[in-house]
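Hi R.,

Here's the input for the magnesium ion complex you asked about:
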Amino acid sequence: MPMTKMFSRILIANRGEIACRVIRTAQRMGIGTVAVYSDADAQSPHVAMADEAVNIGPAPVTDSYLRADHIIEAALATGAEAIHPGYGFLSENPGFVDAVVKAGLVFIGPSADSIRAMGLKDAAKRLMEKAGVPVVPGYHGEAQELVVLASKAREIGYPVLIKARAGGGGKGMRKVDNPDDFAEALGSARREAKSAFGDDRVLVEKYVAKPRHIEVQVFGDNHGNAVHLYERDCSLQRRHQKVIEEAPAPGITAEMRAAMTSAAVKAALAINYSGAGTIEFIVDASEGLKADRFWFMEMNTRLQVEHPVTEMITGLDLVEWQLRVAAGEKLPLTQKQIPLNGHAVEARLYAEDPARSFLPAIGTLHHLAFPDNVTNGDIRIETGVRAGDTISPFYDPMIAKVVVHAADRTAALAAMESALVQTQIAGTTTNLAFLAALIRHEGFGSGDVDTGLIDRDLASLVAPSATAAGAKELAIIAASGLLEQPASDDPWATLRGYSHLSSPAYPVTLIEEEKPVRYGVAILNNERFVLSGPAGKIEVKVRREAGGWHVTGKGINLRAKTAAIPNGIAVLSKGAVSSFAVTDPFLLAEAAGNAADRLSAPMPGLVKSVRVSAGDMVKKGQILLVLEAMKMEHTITAPHDGKIAEIVTESSQVKEKSSLVRFETNE
Ligand code: ADP
Ligand code: ADP
Ligand code: MG
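And here is the predicted structure with magnesium ion in place:
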């Protein structure tokens, strides 16, 4: 057997948490690291962590992280021998793999041929059918005409799923419940696919009843070996994208696991797979898990976002395995040697608003804190941002992955709940409270999961939690500036309060339901305050303690932390954040000028299509235009009946808050 030699230096062609994740393992193995970054990421953690970093272009991904030529140049210039692609970006681009190899470098991942074989969902399904792996019933042929696809859909039987053959990340996918909606759904799937993947060809599949997404982690080497590392359940999804993942799959039987893992290994062997890969199956769970009711959906020929749950149940480092396999070594363990211990859960923390269709959010993370440990389990935080960093519109809005491991599922869910409750973020809208609500969801707790769970129970999952008693009082006192004093033994610090006994109350104005409300704060001593407001006077005590403040008073017993956010104060307590806008009443009058006759862009984006023209009469709910922002299509509809006075032009680029549509006002 030829001797293999581990790389001495690798380049990581990615950003954010996955770049940090790969760098960490490389450092542990004594391998040098080169980061690449766009102009927007110059100050990012992954850049600081690597031994060396190379700027590869401006912020937009097409000018930087997708510039294969710049990345390969950077590797050659820094003496890197191999390139780790992370996930997303160029990780499943066979042209990139060819270029890497041609430059005399090693691609840390499968061969270009393996990626090609699995790259298009239609061809992959045909290949898997041949290899004897069960595939979802549907049409995955060449024809693309509306009439053909619509008639195939009728044959398959509604509901059906239209999927971009080049799809990924849940994009270019539309569920269609009845034939009348087919044409509109097809058009929208095609547009999204065209812009995301440059390929608008689709396939049509049976929409599986009570679907569960269960996938199998596989690993192959260049010596003809392939193993699996058990399954992960990723059924909790929004917009066909995973939110919470776990391993093992709840309720899986030995028989089901054997059937799924052997099909997965068969699939890997069929394409001589080398490196880390995932075979995704869709499972019909309408009558429990049955060994003959799972079908191949697609293979992801890369490391998966949720790989940490597999690492936690097996105790293995999958990035280390990737590096060893790419360096020519055999798989470190045989199938029998791969352990499975306990239960692991991952939650994806995103800057997004669950209450507004999970609209991605942008902003600065003014405050960001994660717990170091959880009781009865282990915790692992995968992140690529720090407090003070910005979630920009250019990239995926993921803030972190919170991963826990415990002896069994019940303990793991409890550990996750405690991890989320101790996580504090202020400055941008996040899905933190939504994640905590999901973890507490009864059906999820009992293991009765399917991909429709989030949509079905959305209303209760996004219900705003009542603001904790005392949060507003704490915000008002914090806003008055009277909490600023450090805890100190300085007698003047203690005396300071008394000297203000007879002084007038400090005024604070909060914005409540878009109106200014005035409060006054009078200080009794350095921890006792009297608040006056529209509802009268109340005395509260605010004591500094480890990790924040303890607020007590009539009906109040709150332990919380405060953080300054633009225009206000955030109060963070038990995983919930309440934001209070503190303002100058003059600014408010200005804000009121933004009347309802205008629709503005919720975020920077590209106007993909405009459906109406100036002068048109429109009905409430009618589609006015489609905005593409943060890799998604947002349909902008009329909030009320009216006449269009002005509308943006198709293909124009719009800034956040810039006007999209103006209605005629009837004076
Ligand atoms: P998985 O199946 O592992 O969840 P997805 O198919 O959802 O992965 O997509 C992989 C991930 O890659 C996305 O969730 C996203 O975080 C990341 N990603 C994909 N494209 C981009 C991009 N253009 N910019 C930043 N991140 C991206
Ligand atoms: P992507 O490449 O975007 O990850 P997938 O084919 O893996 O696309 O599908 C993403 C998700 O869509 C799945 O995890 C599942 O929730 C849902 N899905 C896909 N195919 C089906 C199907 N035939 N029936 C029901 N749900 C499906
Ligand atoms: Mg998928």
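One thing worth noting: The longest strand covers residues 226-238.

Cheers,
M.
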